[in-house]
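Here comes a specimen:
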Amino acid sequence: LDLQRDKAFPEYFYSFLNDYFKIFSTYPRSPDEKIYKLKKDIYNIIDVITTYEKQLSVNESSNNKENVISEGLVIVVSLLTSLLRALKHCSAKLNALDVLKIMACYLSPDVILDRLLPYLVYLA
């Protein structure tokens, strides 16, 4: 992984996401508890990832600096959707819907249609 630093994997993968995902795999937790943790941390996750991507867009002198569509959040979407079908409590399902709604503001329409919409239909 270190060989591909800033080539295949952006810096936030090493400085933040890798350690954050270890939390979910190290300690045994139910999917409901993982969703609660994800909901609590979602704004911090979005801030870390979008800050990095905004810096990239400034460096590339993009015209769309205000509304960054985050490709890095797709990794978090995969974590979230992997937990959805195993949820047991209604409150956890509602929390998952809240996280989906928050993340949808930062995702491209293709990701929303391909990865989020099927789970929204499942939870509805």
Q: What stands out?
A: The mean pLDDT is 86. The two ends are 39 Å apart (CA to CA).
